[in-house]
Amino acid sequence: MIKFISELFSTQLTNLLLVLLLFLFTIKIYYDLTFQYWKKRNVPQVQKPQLIFGNVPPKFYDQDCPGCLIKLAYEYGKAQGFKLIGNFLGLRPFYLLVDLEHVKNILRKDFNYFVERGFYYNEKDDPLSANLFSVGGEEWRTLRTKLSQAFTAGKIKFMFESLLECAYQMSNEIEKNYIKKQTINMKEISECFTIDVIGSCVFGLQCNSFKNPDAEFRKQGKKIFHFTIPRALKVFFAFSNVKLARWLGVTLFDKDTTRFFVSVVEDTLKYRQCNESTRKDFIQLLSDLKGETEKDNNNSSTAIEKLTAQAFIFFAAGFETSSITLTFCLYELSVNLDIQDKVREEIARVLSDYEEITYDVIMDMKYLNQVVEETLRKYPPVSFLTRECVKDYNVPNTNLVIEEGILTVISVLGIHHDPEYYPEPETFDPERFSDTNRPLIRPFAYMPFGEGPRICVGLRFGLMQVKVGLVVLLKDYKFVLNKKTQVPLEMEPLSFTLTPKNGIFVDIEKVA
């Protein structure tokens, strides 16, 4: 009996091992066949893809930021004289564009072939992910047409007072640190400022982040962009296996974050309706859209989730990208004190002709604009762009066909640091964007907000947010880099945006 059981167990174990080996062999064959994709099309590659991760380093979460890794691939392709190269995000093949003519075709000229971003979203299981940034097709066109109305010059002028008030609250916080002679982490200060701005201008709420650093808006903002290793791996899986991840119900944002934003939007809309408030801000635009969305969906909760997704992406994008830009700008000004002095001189000169800071006053500051544009050149917050092909596309002047469903990637960081377009790209030089030099920049060589029909809808608001913050701070304070700041700067590997890893610390001096 014992012998029989032993033989049976041995047979079952052998069969199990054979099945496992067959399964692993099948997976290996599948990977090998998939990884032949570029070779069959005679498209050059940077390196041989690896099992599971493709061309992404297995420990990507501990090496460099995604945009920096894509920049390295761009530089390799440029050095080899390639116009595009093939890569793999896991099993997902994607083109990395090197030639600016290809970039122009995909982002603008032949945009109808590349309407989709190719980002993962899941409207059913993760409603916040189905936002203007991620969705495509007719849904994107409809949303963009309606939401772009929130960021016209007239609407920004209307929101200007709220923006300025938040900037003065930031200035008060700087004053407190100056009195105490404390070194400040500019990243923390910038985050509080942009949280308050977005809270006021997008949601019509007072966040008071400087008085209450643990305010829920700030906690949620930091949570959105905080990537643990498990979360980073989940995001990698979702973006490299979009259909499978959607079928499995993978979510990018936790339920607590979803509940918070749905509650904020729902409560704010109810308050507006009960009080018959018609303030011309972003929430009012959502309120106007609410009826249309409910009519289309025949479901009030679905309508609220759709509207919340749009408010969420404007909160997330406006908070993170603007705070990073303000932080990097003050870093460069604290290193290049001559440039900081020149900006301050312009601020003083322009303000001497006006009684107060207004939208038009900010627009008169040309050198300030050059400084902000050079900051965005050197540190584009969104360091790469993606577009997914929606129908087979013949690449002009080649025999190559980009097939439906294939992703294309553009290294904004690589292009912005390409010495062909920007001599001495690591040098911070606002004169690149002077009236004389700006027209010399090649089309599509400067894309901090993207390009083409999917260019960032809130770019004017984002720029104004940064400029107002700079004017209010620089007119009264001088910023000097503290030795606690790690130089050269390292970027956070667990971040889709270009973010300083260890903070940027500055000392404050009062301007006489």
Automatic annotation (TrEMBL):
The keyword Oxidoreductase applies. It is found in: Endoplasmic reticulum membrane; Microsome membrane. InterPro entries: Cyt_P450 (IPR001128), Cyt_P450_CS (IPR017972), Cyt_P450_E_grp-I (IPR002401), Cyt_P450_sf (IPR036396), Insect_CytP450_Detox (IPR050476). The keyword Metal-binding applies. Heme binds at residue 456. One of its GO terms (cellular component) is endoplasmic reticulum membrane. Its cofactor is heme. GO terms for molecular function: heme binding; iron ion binding; monooxygenase activity; oxidoreductase activity, acting on paired donors, with incorporation or reduction of molecular oxygen. SUPFAM superfamilies: Cytochrome P450. Keywords: Endoplasmic reticulum, Heme, Iron, Membrane, Metal-binding, Microsome, Monooxygenase, Oxidoreductase, Transmembrane, Transmembrane helix. It is a peripheral membrane protein. The chain crosses the membrane at residues 12-31. It comes from the Eukaryota. Belongs to the cytochrome P450 family. This is Cytochrome P450. The lineage of its organism: Eukaryota, Metazoa, Ecdysozoa, Arthropoda, Hexapoda.
